[in-house]
Amino acid sequence: MEYMEKNQSQSLKIDKKIICYRNKINIKNIDLIYKTIIALFKINYPELFKWTPKKINSTIWKSRKFQNSIIKARKISKKKFGKIYDTLQLTTSLKSMMTSDSILSLVEKYTNLKRENFVGFNSIVRFDPPFDERNTVDWHYDLYPGLELKMNPINGVTVTVSFHDTEIIHGSPIFLINSHKKKIPIVLKKRKNNYSGSYQINEKLLSSFERKSFKTKIGDILIFPMKMIHKSGKNISNQVRISGLFRYYPINKKEFIPLKEIYLPSE
Q: Three-state DSSP class for 197?
């Protein structure tokens, strides 16, 4: 098998595998993410989040009140929920995790490149509600923002962080093992009045690949090539799956195209 966990091998070659590193993120850093999440929801939905305790940490994810409030908030106002989502990606709590030594040291080992050779982009906290159809992502590989299909992401690395214990029923992503080694065309369709788009890949080209999902614990990290094809799993639980997503691209590769970070107001 090409995928592996760290305790199975020390061989870290970017062209071969997806790796799950166990318990690599300090829980205090994840606690800070939840404090930021609660702060944003209290600002935007003050009545709905009156119940929150003074002391907030990652255990709040297990609270039925937390789960119900997040799900209800999304139903009450998609616009407000979208503003929370957009703002969260820019917060210092998330940016500090993206540039933490715990993650960058693993990226260095995985790629055999020093951290000064990387740009980091798309720091994201994903909210995947139960039985959601609107924001699930179909088969795709990760692209460089703004350039979409203009830059080959072959040298890029994606890192995901589990912000709680995650079972397969929570919608863990599904990976196609070794799919990054094949030249598989992807079509990006832009949506009207929306900065995001949808991906399309001919599923007939994907049937030969082994599929893999991971059951993870809080603080676990997954590292895989940006060009590995994957998609959102189906969340059939009664809980919102919350996870971190970070991408890194080496500036010393010929495929790299410099660009500036642009911030747009949330609609």
A: strand
Domains of the chain: 15-250 (2.60.120.620)
* Banded pLDDT at 257 (limits 50, 70, 90): confident
Radius of gyration of the chain (CA): 18
What's the pLDDT tens digit per position in 185-241? 888 776 655 555 677 888 889 999 999 999 999 999 999 999 999 999 999 999 999
* Residue tagged 């009450």 (tokens): 76
Q: Quick one: which of 21, 8, 7, 1 has its CA closest to 224?
A: 21
Cβ-proximal residues to 184 (8 Å cutoff; 6+ apart), any chain: 201, 202, 205, 206, 229
* Residue type at position 181: K
For residue 189, which of 203, 202, 199 has the smallest C-alpha distance? 199
Helix boundaries (H) for the chain = 27-44, 64-76, 78-88, 92-98, 101-111
Helices (H), 12-77: 27-44, 64-76
Predicted TM-score (pTM) of this structure: 0.89
- The Cβ-side half-sphere exposure at 50, using a 13 Å CA radius, reads 2
Residue 149's pLDDT band (cuts 50, 70, 90): low
Query: What is residue 125's DSSP assignment?
Result: E
Residues forming a β-bridge with 223? 19, 159
